[in-house]
Amino acid sequence: MAAMTGAQRFALLRCNGRTMALAADEIAEILPLPTLHRPPGAPKVFAGFLNRSGHPLAVIDMPAVFGEESADDLYRHIVRLRGASRIDQALLVDRVVETQASATSFEPIEDEASLNGVFAGTLLIEGAPIPLLDLDRLLLAEEAARIAELSQTIERRTAGLADPAA
After folding, report:
1. Span between the terminal Cα atoms of the chain, in Å
2. CB-hemisphere CA count at 13 Å for 159?
3. What is the Cα–Cα distance from 105 to 127, expressed in whole angstroms?
4. Which end of the chain offers a freer environment for a tag, N or C, measured as fewer CB atoms within 10 Å?
5. Superfamily of domain 2-161
6. CA 93, CA 91: separation in Å to the nearest integer?
7. What predicted TM-score, i.e. pTM, was given to this entire model?
8. Could you count the other beta carbons within 10 Å of the beta carbon of residue 147?
Protein backbone atom coordinates (compact mmCIF):
# COMPACT_ATOMS: atom_id res chain seq x y z
CA MET A 1 0.00 0.00 0.00
CA ALA A 2 1.17 3.51 -0.78
CA ALA A 3 1.81 5.95 2.07
CA MET A 4 -0.35 9.05 2.34
CA THR A 5 0.50 12.51 3.65
CA GLY A 6 -2.34 12.63 6.17
CA ALA A 7 -3.22 16.16 5.07
CA GLN A 8 -6.15 15.03 2.95
CA ARG A 9 -9.41 14.48 4.82
CA PHE A 10 -12.29 12.19 3.95
CA ALA A 11 -15.99 12.03 4.72
CA LEU A 12 -17.33 8.62 5.66
CA LEU A 13 -20.74 7.82 4.21
CA ARG A 14 -23.09 4.97 5.16
CA CYS A 15 -25.31 3.44 2.53
CA ASN A 16 -27.36 0.27 3.15
CA GLY A 17 -24.87 -0.97 5.76
CA ARG A 18 -21.84 -0.17 3.59
CA THR A 19 -19.27 2.47 4.61
CA MET A 20 -17.47 4.37 1.87
CA ALA A 21 -15.20 7.40 1.74
CA LEU A 22 -15.31 10.57 -0.31
CA ALA A 23 -12.60 13.23 -0.35
CA ALA A 24 -13.84 16.00 1.97
CA ASP A 25 -12.83 18.69 -0.53
CA GLU A 26 -15.39 17.21 -2.99
CA ILE A 27 -18.23 18.19 -0.59
CA ALA A 28 -19.87 21.61 -0.68
CA GLU A 29 -22.39 20.93 2.12
CA ILE A 30 -24.35 18.24 3.92
CA LEU A 31 -28.13 18.66 4.01
CA PRO A 32 -31.03 16.88 5.71
CA LEU A 33 -33.42 15.03 3.43
CA PRO A 34 -36.20 17.28 2.10
CA THR A 35 -38.86 16.37 -0.44
CA LEU A 36 -37.33 15.46 -3.80
CA HIS A 37 -39.09 15.84 -7.15
CA ARG A 38 -38.41 13.00 -9.61
CA PRO A 39 -39.55 13.60 -13.18
CA PRO A 40 -40.97 10.72 -15.24
CA GLY A 41 -38.46 8.93 -17.43
CA ALA A 42 -35.52 9.67 -15.12
CA PRO A 43 -32.80 7.01 -14.74
CA LYS A 44 -33.26 4.62 -11.81
CA VAL A 45 -30.18 6.05 -10.05
CA PHE A 46 -31.75 9.51 -10.00
CA ALA A 47 -33.55 10.24 -6.70
CA GLY A 48 -34.92 13.57 -7.92
CA PHE A 49 -34.37 17.31 -7.79
CA LEU A 50 -34.04 19.46 -4.71
CA ASN A 51 -34.97 23.12 -5.17
CA ARG A 52 -31.97 25.13 -3.88
CA SER A 53 -32.99 28.81 -3.96
CA GLY A 54 -34.64 28.39 -7.34
CA HIS A 55 -31.91 26.22 -8.84
CA PRO A 56 -32.26 22.46 -9.31
CA LEU A 57 -29.88 20.20 -7.43
CA ALA A 58 -29.77 16.74 -9.04
CA VAL A 59 -29.66 14.04 -6.34
CA ILE A 60 -28.14 10.63 -7.10
CA ASP A 61 -29.59 7.69 -5.14
CA MET A 62 -26.47 5.83 -3.95
CA PRO A 63 -28.22 2.53 -3.11
CA ALA A 64 -29.58 2.48 -6.69
CA VAL A 65 -26.02 2.95 -8.01
CA PHE A 66 -25.25 -0.39 -6.33
CA GLY A 67 -28.45 -2.02 -7.63
CA GLU A 68 -30.16 -1.85 -4.22
CA GLU A 69 -33.36 -0.30 -2.88
CA SER A 70 -33.15 2.84 -0.75
CA ALA A 71 -34.10 2.63 2.89
CA ASP A 72 -37.22 4.65 3.64
CA ASP A 73 -35.59 6.74 6.37
CA LEU A 74 -36.49 10.37 7.04
CA TYR A 75 -33.06 11.01 8.53
CA ARG A 76 -30.93 10.37 5.47
CA HIS A 77 -28.44 12.96 4.24
CA ILE A 78 -27.87 14.71 0.96
CA VAL A 79 -24.19 15.37 0.24
CA ARG A 80 -23.93 18.31 -2.17
CA LEU A 81 -20.83 18.02 -4.34
CA ARG A 82 -18.41 20.69 -5.54
CA GLY A 83 -16.94 20.75 -8.98
CA ALA A 84 -17.21 22.92 -12.03
CA SER A 85 -16.94 19.89 -14.33
CA ARG A 86 -20.30 18.43 -13.32
CA ILE A 87 -23.85 19.68 -13.04
CA ASP A 88 -24.96 20.81 -9.59
CA GLN A 89 -25.49 17.41 -8.01
CA ALA A 90 -25.58 15.57 -4.73
CA LEU A 91 -25.53 12.05 -3.30
CA LEU A 92 -28.37 10.59 -1.25
CA VAL A 93 -26.89 8.44 1.53
CA ASP A 94 -28.20 6.95 4.76
CA ARG A 95 -25.86 8.99 6.91
CA VAL A 96 -22.65 10.99 6.93
CA VAL A 97 -20.82 9.55 9.94
CA GLU A 98 -17.55 11.51 9.74
CA THR A 99 -16.33 14.54 7.83
CA GLN A 100 -12.64 14.80 8.75
CA ALA A 101 -11.25 11.25 8.73
CA SER A 102 -7.63 10.76 7.76
CA ALA A 103 -6.18 7.75 5.98
CA THR A 104 -2.80 6.14 6.52
CA SER A 105 -2.63 4.46 3.11
CA PHE A 106 -4.36 4.03 -0.24
CA GLU A 107 -4.42 0.99 -2.51
CA PRO A 108 -5.83 1.58 -6.03
CA ILE A 109 -8.15 -1.05 -7.50
CA GLU A 110 -8.95 -1.94 -11.09
CA ASP A 111 -12.35 -1.02 -12.54
CA GLU A 112 -13.43 -4.65 -12.81
CA ALA A 113 -12.57 -5.30 -9.15
CA SER A 114 -14.61 -2.30 -7.98
CA LEU A 115 -18.27 -2.69 -6.97
CA ASN A 116 -20.12 -1.39 -10.04
CA GLY A 117 -16.86 0.32 -11.00
CA VAL A 118 -17.45 3.32 -8.71
CA PHE A 119 -14.50 2.94 -6.34
CA ALA A 120 -10.98 4.20 -7.08
CA GLY A 121 -9.34 2.16 -4.37
CA THR A 122 -9.23 1.33 -0.69
CA LEU A 123 -8.17 3.67 2.11
CA LEU A 124 -6.95 2.48 5.48
CA ILE A 125 -8.79 4.61 8.06
CA GLU A 126 -8.32 3.81 11.76
CA GLY A 127 -7.19 0.31 10.79
CA ALA A 128 -10.24 -0.43 8.65
CA PRO A 129 -10.25 -0.76 4.84
CA ILE A 130 -12.74 1.75 3.40
CA PRO A 131 -13.51 1.99 -0.35
CA LEU A 132 -12.96 5.47 -1.87
CA LEU A 133 -15.65 6.75 -4.25
CA ASP A 134 -14.55 8.07 -7.62
CA LEU A 135 -17.17 10.64 -8.67
CA ASP A 136 -16.06 10.48 -12.30
CA ARG A 137 -17.06 6.78 -12.38
CA LEU A 138 -20.32 7.15 -10.46
CA LEU A 139 -22.77 7.33 -13.36
CA LEU A 140 -22.95 5.59 -16.71
CA ALA A 141 -22.53 8.02 -19.62
CA GLU A 142 -26.22 7.60 -20.55
CA GLU A 143 -27.33 8.29 -16.96
CA ALA A 144 -25.14 11.39 -16.71
CA ALA A 145 -26.43 12.71 -20.06
CA ARG A 146 -30.09 12.16 -19.12
CA ILE A 147 -29.69 13.81 -15.71
CA ALA A 148 -27.86 16.77 -17.31
CA GLU A 149 -30.69 17.09 -19.84
CA LEU A 150 -33.34 17.02 -17.09
CA SER A 151 -31.35 19.59 -15.08
CA GLN A 152 -31.16 21.95 -18.05
CA THR A 153 -34.89 21.58 -18.71
CA ILE A 154 -35.76 22.35 -15.08
CA GLU A 155 -33.30 25.28 -15.04
CA ARG A 156 -34.96 26.78 -18.15
CA ARG A 157 -38.43 26.30 -16.68
CA THR A 158 -37.54 27.90 -13.34
CA ALA A 159 -35.78 30.78 -15.13
CA GLY A 160 -39.03 31.35 -17.07
CA LEU A 161 -40.99 31.48 -13.81
CA ALA A 162 -38.61 34.07 -12.36
CA ASP A 163 -38.77 36.25 -15.51
CA PRO A 164 -42.37 36.50 -16.83
CA ALA A 165 -41.06 38.03 -20.09
CA ALA A 166 -39.07 34.85 -20.87
Report:
1. 56
2. 7
3. 10
4. C
5. CheA-289, Domain 4 (2.40.50.180)
6. 6
7. 0.81
8. 22
What does the alpha-carbon distance between residue 158 and residue 99 come to, in Å, rounded to a whole number? 33
Supply the pLDDT for residue 1. 35
What is residue 5's DSSP assignment? -
- Compute the radius of gyration of the chain from its Cα atoms: 17
Burial of 150 (0-12, 13-18, 19+ CB in 10 A): buried
61-85: burial string, b at 16+ Cβ within 10 Å, e else: bbbbbeeeebeeeeebbbbbbeeee
Residue 115 CA to residue 17 CA, distance in Å, equals 14
C-alpha 38/C-alpha 11 separation (Å) is 27
Q: In one letter, which amino acid is 8? A: Q
Going from the first residue of the chain to its last (166 residues), give the mean pLDDT of each consecutive group of 10, the final group possibly shorter: 63 93 94 84 89 83 87 82 74 93 90 72 94 86 84 77 55
Q: What is the C-alpha separation between 6 and 104, in angstroms, rounded? A: 7
| Rounded Cα distance, 139 and 73, in Å | 24
Closest among 154, 135, 116 to 27, alpha carbons compared: 135
Q: Is the dihedral of CA 101, 115, 26, 69 positive or negative?
A: negative
